[in-house]
Amino acid sequence: MGLRLALLYFVLFVFLLGFAESDDMSTQLLKGINDYRAGLNLSSLTENSNAACLAEQLAKQFKGQECSNTTGSDTVPGTEEQFPNYMDFLNHCHLNATVTQDAEVMPACVPGLTPDLVLTNFTKSQYNEYLNDTKYAGVGIADEGNWVVVVLSTDTPTGNFSPASGSSWAAAISPCHQLLLLLLGCLFLLMI
Protein backbone atom coordinates (compact mmCIF):
# COMPACT_ATOMS: atom_id res chain seq x y z
CA MET A 1 0.00 0.00 0.00
CA GLY A 2 2.86 2.42 0.84
CA LEU A 3 4.56 1.90 -2.54
CA ARG A 4 1.26 2.42 -4.37
CA LEU A 5 0.65 5.65 -2.47
CA ALA A 6 4.18 6.91 -3.16
CA LEU A 7 3.80 6.11 -6.86
CA LEU A 8 0.44 7.87 -6.92
CA TYR A 9 1.93 11.02 -5.34
CA PHE A 10 4.82 10.94 -7.81
CA VAL A 11 2.47 10.73 -10.81
CA LEU A 12 0.35 13.55 -9.40
CA PHE A 13 3.46 15.69 -8.81
CA VAL A 14 4.75 15.17 -12.36
CA PHE A 15 1.29 15.93 -13.78
CA LEU A 16 0.96 19.15 -11.79
CA LEU A 17 4.53 20.19 -12.61
CA GLY A 18 3.72 19.95 -16.32
CA PHE A 19 0.73 22.27 -15.83
CA ALA A 20 2.79 24.73 -13.82
CA GLU A 21 5.64 24.93 -16.34
CA SER A 22 3.38 25.41 -19.35
CA ASP A 23 1.14 27.89 -17.55
CA ASP A 24 4.20 29.76 -16.29
CA MET A 25 5.54 30.24 -19.84
CA SER A 26 2.16 31.46 -21.09
CA THR A 27 1.70 33.79 -18.13
CA GLN A 28 5.20 35.26 -18.47
CA LEU A 29 4.80 35.75 -22.21
CA LEU A 30 1.38 37.38 -21.86
CA LYS A 31 2.74 39.73 -19.20
CA GLY A 32 5.71 40.60 -21.41
CA ILE A 33 3.51 41.21 -24.46
CA ASN A 34 1.14 43.38 -22.44
CA ASP A 35 4.07 45.35 -20.98
CA TYR A 36 5.37 45.84 -24.53
CA ARG A 37 1.93 47.05 -25.69
CA ALA A 38 1.61 49.34 -22.65
CA GLY A 39 4.89 50.96 -23.67
CA LEU A 40 3.22 51.78 -27.00
CA ASN A 41 0.07 53.10 -25.25
CA LEU A 42 -1.97 50.16 -26.56
CA SER A 43 -4.58 48.26 -24.60
CA SER A 44 -3.66 44.97 -22.95
CA LEU A 45 -4.60 41.72 -24.62
CA THR A 46 -6.98 39.51 -22.66
CA GLU A 47 -6.80 35.75 -22.56
CA ASN A 48 -9.09 34.07 -25.08
CA SER A 49 -9.58 30.40 -24.19
CA ASN A 50 -10.71 29.44 -27.70
CA ALA A 51 -7.63 31.09 -29.23
CA ALA A 52 -5.56 29.22 -26.62
CA CYS A 53 -7.17 25.96 -27.73
CA LEU A 54 -6.14 26.64 -31.34
CA ALA A 55 -2.65 27.68 -30.20
CA GLU A 56 -2.35 24.39 -28.31
CA GLN A 57 -3.35 22.35 -31.36
CA LEU A 58 -0.85 24.21 -33.54
CA ALA A 59 1.93 23.92 -30.95
CA LYS A 60 1.40 20.16 -30.86
CA GLN A 61 1.79 20.17 -34.65
CA PHE A 62 5.18 21.92 -34.34
CA LYS A 63 6.48 19.82 -31.42
CA GLY A 64 9.61 17.96 -32.38
CA GLN A 65 10.13 20.03 -35.52
CA GLU A 66 13.56 21.62 -35.82
CA CYS A 67 13.98 25.39 -35.83
CA SER A 68 14.89 26.80 -39.24
CA ASN A 69 14.41 29.90 -41.40
CA THR A 70 11.15 28.42 -42.68
CA THR A 71 9.59 28.16 -39.21
CA GLY A 72 8.58 30.65 -36.56
CA SER A 73 9.56 34.29 -36.41
CA ASP A 74 12.62 33.73 -38.63
CA THR A 75 10.41 32.61 -41.50
CA VAL A 76 11.40 33.93 -44.88
CA PRO A 77 8.20 35.48 -46.32
CA GLY A 78 6.50 33.06 -48.71
CA THR A 79 7.91 29.92 -47.10
CA GLU A 80 5.43 29.63 -44.23
CA GLU A 81 4.17 26.15 -43.51
CA GLN A 82 0.50 25.61 -44.26
CA PHE A 83 -1.63 23.45 -42.00
CA PRO A 84 -3.56 20.90 -44.07
CA ASN A 85 -5.42 19.81 -40.91
CA TYR A 86 -6.33 23.36 -39.80
CA MET A 87 -10.03 22.55 -40.06
CA ASP A 88 -9.51 19.58 -37.73
CA PHE A 89 -7.91 21.95 -35.21
CA LEU A 90 -10.89 24.29 -35.49
CA ASN A 91 -13.31 21.40 -35.03
CA HIS A 92 -11.40 20.22 -31.97
CA CYS A 93 -11.80 23.71 -30.48
CA HIS A 94 -15.49 23.93 -31.53
CA LEU A 95 -14.76 26.81 -33.91
CA ASN A 96 -15.50 27.50 -37.54
CA ALA A 97 -13.30 29.36 -40.00
CA THR A 98 -15.50 32.47 -40.12
CA VAL A 99 -14.68 33.44 -36.52
CA THR A 100 -10.91 33.13 -37.09
CA GLN A 101 -10.51 35.07 -40.35
CA ASP A 102 -9.12 38.20 -38.69
CA ALA A 103 -6.87 36.26 -36.32
CA GLU A 104 -3.12 36.07 -36.53
CA VAL A 105 -1.15 32.89 -35.80
CA MET A 106 2.45 33.46 -34.73
CA PRO A 107 4.67 30.41 -34.05
CA ALA A 108 8.19 30.82 -32.68
CA CYS A 109 10.89 28.27 -32.00
CA VAL A 110 13.22 29.08 -29.10
CA PRO A 111 15.50 26.26 -27.89
CA GLY A 112 15.01 25.93 -24.14
CA LEU A 113 12.14 28.45 -24.16
CA THR A 114 14.18 31.09 -22.32
CA PRO A 115 11.53 33.69 -21.35
CA ASP A 116 13.46 36.78 -22.51
CA LEU A 117 14.30 35.18 -25.85
CA VAL A 118 10.73 34.02 -26.32
CA LEU A 119 9.44 37.56 -25.79
CA THR A 120 12.09 38.97 -28.13
CA ASN A 121 10.99 36.53 -30.83
CA PHE A 122 7.62 38.27 -30.83
CA THR A 123 8.50 41.91 -30.09
CA LYS A 124 11.65 42.23 -32.23
CA SER A 125 10.62 40.28 -35.31
CA GLN A 126 8.13 40.44 -38.15
CA TYR A 127 5.47 39.60 -35.53
CA ASN A 128 5.72 43.00 -33.83
CA GLU A 129 3.55 44.56 -36.54
CA TYR A 130 0.66 42.43 -35.25
CA LEU A 131 1.44 43.14 -31.60
CA ASN A 132 1.47 46.86 -32.45
CA ASP A 133 -1.95 46.66 -34.13
CA THR A 134 -4.90 48.07 -32.16
CA LYS A 135 -7.38 45.69 -33.80
CA TYR A 136 -6.18 42.78 -31.66
CA ALA A 137 -7.86 42.45 -28.27
CA GLY A 138 -7.38 38.82 -27.22
CA VAL A 139 -4.65 36.22 -27.18
CA GLY A 140 -4.17 32.49 -26.80
CA ILE A 141 -0.73 31.09 -25.99
CA ALA A 142 0.57 27.52 -25.91
CA ASP A 143 3.98 25.87 -25.91
CA GLU A 144 5.23 22.40 -26.80
CA GLY A 145 8.86 21.39 -26.84
CA ASN A 146 10.85 24.38 -28.14
CA TRP A 147 7.79 25.94 -29.74
CA VAL A 148 5.50 28.73 -28.58
CA VAL A 149 2.40 29.64 -30.58
CA VAL A 150 0.61 32.94 -30.03
CA VAL A 151 -2.82 33.40 -31.60
CA LEU A 152 -4.21 36.94 -31.64
CA SER A 153 -7.96 37.51 -31.76
CA THR A 154 -10.12 40.57 -32.38
CA ASP A 155 -13.44 41.79 -31.04
CA THR A 156 -15.06 41.44 -34.47
CA PRO A 157 -17.40 38.59 -35.47
CA THR A 158 -14.72 37.42 -37.93
CA GLY A 159 -11.95 37.24 -35.37
CA ASN A 160 -13.40 36.80 -31.89
CA PHE A 161 -13.12 32.98 -31.74
CA SER A 162 -16.67 32.52 -30.49
CA PRO A 163 -17.69 28.85 -30.49
CA ALA A 164 -19.45 27.43 -33.53
CA SER A 165 -23.21 27.32 -33.23
CA GLY A 166 -24.44 24.06 -31.78
CA SER A 167 -21.31 23.52 -29.71
CA SER A 168 -21.50 23.35 -25.98
CA TRP A 169 -19.15 24.87 -23.43
CA ALA A 170 -19.22 21.50 -21.71
CA ALA A 171 -18.06 19.66 -24.83
CA ALA A 172 -14.41 20.53 -24.25
CA ILE A 173 -12.62 19.31 -21.15
CA SER A 174 -10.51 22.09 -19.70
CA PRO A 175 -7.23 21.46 -17.87
CA CYS A 176 -9.03 22.15 -14.58
CA HIS A 177 -11.53 19.43 -15.35
CA GLN A 178 -8.70 17.09 -16.33
CA LEU A 179 -7.06 17.73 -12.98
CA LEU A 180 -10.34 17.10 -11.17
CA LEU A 181 -10.79 13.81 -13.04
CA LEU A 182 -7.21 12.81 -12.18
CA LEU A 183 -7.76 13.56 -8.51
CA LEU A 184 -11.01 11.57 -8.49
CA GLY A 185 -9.19 8.68 -10.14
CA CYS A 186 -6.45 8.84 -7.52
CA LEU A 187 -9.04 8.88 -4.76
CA PHE A 188 -10.67 5.83 -6.31
CA LEU A 189 -7.31 4.02 -6.42
CA LEU A 190 -6.68 4.80 -2.77
CA MET A 191 -10.03 3.28 -1.84
CA ILE A 192 -9.18 -0.02 -3.54
Automatic annotation (TrEMBL):
InterPro entries the UniProt entry points to: At5g19230-like, At5g19230_dom, CAP_sf
Superkingdom as given in the UniProt entry: Eukaryota
Family annotation (Pfam families): At5g19230
Record-linked SUPFAM superfamilies: PR-1-like
Keyword list, A-Z: Membrane, Signal, Transmembrane, Transmembrane helix
Uncharacterized GPI-anchored protein At5g19230-like domain: residues covered: 28-152
Keyword Transmembrane helix annotated: yes
Residues that span the membrane, as ranges: 169-190
The keyword rRNA processing is assigned to this record: no
Leader peptide range in chain numbering: 1-22
Protein name: Uncharacterized GPI-anchored protein At5g19250-like
